[in-house]
Amino acid sequence: DTCFQCHNVRKAQFMRSSHMPLREGKLTCTDCHNPHGGTGPAQLKQATVNENCLSCHAEKKGPFLWEHPPVRENCLNCHSPHGSQHDKLLKAKKPRLCQECHIEAWHPTTAGTVNSWAVGGKSCTECHSQIHGSNHPSGVRFQR
Predict the structure, then answer these.
(1) Contact 113/105 with Cβ under 8 angstroms?
(2) How distant, in Å, are the alpha carbons of 4, 84, 85 from that of 10?
(3) If you average pLDDT over residues 96-110, what whole number do you get?
(4) Is 136 in contact with 144 (CB distance < 8 Å)?
(5) Quick one: which H or E segment has residue 134?
(6) Is the whole model's pTM more than 0.70, yes or no?
(7) How far apart are CA 24 and CA 18, in angstroms?
(8) Euclidean distance between the first and the last CA atom of the chain, given in angstroms as a whole number
(9) Residue 114 φ then ψ, to 5°
(10) Furthest-apart CA atoms within the chain: distance in Å
């Protein structure tokens, strides 16, 4: 409540369908942020966004033989940390999120096109399930 007195936009983000478990009482703002100043951006407790996220989400941390570069760079490339209308705090719905960087020509999403696979609720992660990284021999395909 103290933080939300000034941070109205963040309060609204936490009301979205996909959100950090703050409303449920499983998390507080100070689990990620130091209100008196942190070592990272936005008064984060850790030096980088990724260090902050991985302090709770260790299963997403490598080292992986095959890493997805945007994941290694910054979790915020794909995720909105306070709340989203999309599953798992994603910035956009799959497959559109993936196609912000990846070429749509390989997997068209327009109905009626040849190989149109992303119609009817399918998404990239149906085949590319290990999008954060993988040690599997299929390598850069991020499968299994």
Answers:
(1) no
(2) 7, 11, 14
(3) 75
(4) yes
(5) strand 133-134
(6) yes
(7) 12
(8) 42
(9) -60, 135
(10) 56
Contacting residues for 16 by C-beta, under 8 A, at least 6 apart: 83, 84, 85
CA distances from 62 to 34, 68, 72, 122, 142 (A): 26, 11, 9, 27, 13
DSSP codes joined into one string, 64-104: -SEE-HHHHH-GGGTB-SSEESSGGGBSS-TTTTGGGTS-G
Q: Is the separation of the CB atoms in 2 and 11 below 8 Å?
A: no
Mean pLDDT of 132-137: 84
Q: Is 53 helix (H, G, I), strand (E, B) or coil?
A: helix
Q: What is the pLDDT of residue 96?
A: 84
Place of tokens 């994603």: 90
Place of tokens 């499968």: 143
Q: Where are the alpha helices (DSSP H) in the chain?
A: 8-13, 49-54, 69-73
Q: Which residues contact 75 (CB under 8 A, 6 or more apart)?
A: 49, 50, 53, 81
